[in-house]
Amino acid sequence: MSEQKHTVKGVDHVAYPTFDPAATVTFYRDVLGFPVVHSICAAGWGPEKHPDFIHFFFDIGNDDRLAFFYYFGLEPFDGGPQGDSYSRFTEDVPIFFIRSRHLAIHVDSEDDLMEYRRRLDGSEWPVEMQIQHETIESIYTHDPNGYMIEITRALRPVTPQEDLDANITIDALVDVVSGPEPSMAALLTRKAELIVERAEAWQQKQDEKEMVSNR
Q1: Beta strands in 73-208 (DSSP E)
Q2: pLDDT over 60 at 159, yes or no
Q3: Alpha-carbon distance 93 to 103, whole Å?
């Protein structure tokens, strides 16, 4: 577990390329209601033969932004039949692998989630899945560029015990993938070993915190 000081303040922006800026603006600004908050018109930037481009940003809440690059005169690249504007994959690449790269945006309530579902279902990009898993409920669709977009809400708060479990799980994963035959069985075995090693110390820290807060 890292003990280094955590000073970052969230996502400034995430950026993707687009070959269809008009549909991208329609999807994010007009359907989802994310305001355009910044744009950069870059003429003559970069090394020789670098195309002119526009870099534009949508406000996705909490001072976070989603940005796109549109390069004038640049055509989509060849590739396989699956994927998005950034990566084209051949038919043998599993769809679960392709969909693992996605953007998830948080909302506070079920009403908010259902409002975004209503907006998407009334557009050219209806919701493809609505799933409850572990501590969240999410809706999913693909934007005009083929990027998977998730909008999610918390079903309940994440507990300190779950934070501890996450850290133990990841430490066990790092140990296991460093070995010769990583597997889920090996991960769970190593995780059980770490739980035994750390649980008592963690509980002692929680007790100490509670005693301090009750003074």
Answers
A1: 82-83, 88-89, 102-107, 129-133, 136-142, 148-154
A2: yes
A3: 20
